[in-house]
Amino acid sequence: MSAAAPDAATDREVTDPGVTAPISIVRANKGFKDTFAAFAIRNYRYFTMAHFVAVIALWMQRIAQDWIVLQLSGSVTAVGITVALQFAPTLLLGPWGGVLADRFSKRALLVIAQSAAGVLAVVMAVLSLSGALQVWHVYLVAFVLGLVTVVDQPARQVFVNELVGPVQLRNAISINSSIFQLGGMIGPAIAGIMLTAVGGGWAFVVNAVACVFTVTMLAVMKGSDLVRSAPAPRSKGMLAEGARYLVRKPAILYSTIMASFVAVFALSLPVMMAAFADHVFNSGAGGYGLLNTLVAVGALIGALASTRRRELRLRSVVISAGAYGAALVVAALMPSMWSFSAVMVIAGFASLMFLTGANQLVQISTNMQIRGRVMSLYVMVLIGGQALGGLLIGWAAEHLGPQLTLLLSGSVPALAALVVGIILARRGELMLKVNLRFWRPADVLRIVQR
């Protein structure tokens, strides 16, 4: 994607001679029948089935894990430490996962990662069901699971292109987000019931079984149908090459900058939901599961809406990040659990419009031979930021109170979106038009693109 038009996908090939191979950048499908067009591909259907089951189980494990830590320690900060330990390896080692994704088979890397995740789930299940689980056990397993994520996430991101090819990539990314949020809606609801009925240990059992199912689906995929790209040759400076590529592509750079603010301040919602359920609304495990489910409802709507997005623009990424921050600010001021929950549905919608838009823009703006490294840097910011945010938000929720912390969580991304918008406007990439002659709501404040 050229620097002159950093935020619009075009129908031409972009080449970077000597550095990366060309990639076709295509417009999104517009017809309703194309909303789930990627499902026509057999391997992608297998991947999606595994992804759906895995996401439900993963959300169940996350909810159970965070709630168990809160009950064992009585500390929201301890929940934040758990989140931080799980995400810290990506912050420290994430780019190396991208190098692996560019050099080796993505499917093989995913099989290894999911197998390791299954073993960790079994360990947690045994400790929890036997009554031997302690907080330090959770910390250790969370950290090791974070090491698994270093390999899993870049490989998973790039593998989607091998499954569907460049034509259906945007559609597949949006469907993946929809599946993730549908699982995020179902998983916490089941986990909330399970926590009160039989305890959280069985959530780890479910996740172990889901990992086995994922490995099975990966194994039965037809290798000849994959859209493979030539592996990047081993060379010095591979990480620096990825970083330079990211910095000189404005669409990637500004999407990553916005992701950093959102990740650090606004993506530690499980920590915040635990604090609100336990300390503000006194709704217990059931309320905690309900709050996470309602956030996922809004996120699912946002993910589905992203499949219908006609154009892929940097401005929509920045605006949706700002809207997400604004929604969190409003939620912090809500007086009851029901009004709070209603606003959090809106927050979930805005967050997924941002996350899917940023993910799509970064992937489509990146040539295939360097995509693993670029995506690993983006994921490092997105997930690693949550490592810092988990500690920050957990500490703030405990010492400043949940409402003030959520107000801070929303204000920073909203302000960052405003600043980035001004920077882009000054560079001529976004332009603000005010029309007071013929007043209509759509004309008072219109952000257009050159």
UniProtKB/TrEMBL annotation:
Q: Which Gene3D superfamilies match?
A: MFS general substrate transporter like domains
Every Major facilitator superfamily (MFS) profile domain range: 38-428
- Which keywords has UniProt assigned to this entry? Cell membrane, Membrane, Transmembrane, Transmembrane helix, Transport
Q: Does the keyword Transmembrane apply?
A: yes
- Transmembrane segments in this chain: where? 46-64, 76-96, 108-127, 133-151, 172-195, 201-220, 251-273, 285-305, 317-334, 340-362, 374-397, 403-425
Q: Which PROSITE patterns match?
A: MFS
Membrane association type? Multi-pass membrane protein
Q: What is this protein called?
A: MFS transporter
Specify the species: Psychromicrobium lacuslunae
Family matches, as InterPro entries = MFS_dom (IPR020846), MFS_trans_sf (IPR036259), TM_effector (IPR010290)
Per UniProt, what is one GO molecular function of this protein?
A: transmembrane transporter activity
Localization, per the record, is:
Cell membrane
**PANTHER family according to UniProt:** INTEGRAL MEMBRANE EFFLUX PROTEIN-RELATED, STAPHYLOFERRIN A TRANSPORTER
What would be one Gene Ontology cellular-component term for the protein? plasma membrane
- Lineage: superkingdom: Bacteria
User: What would be one Pfam family of this protein?
Assistant: MFS_3
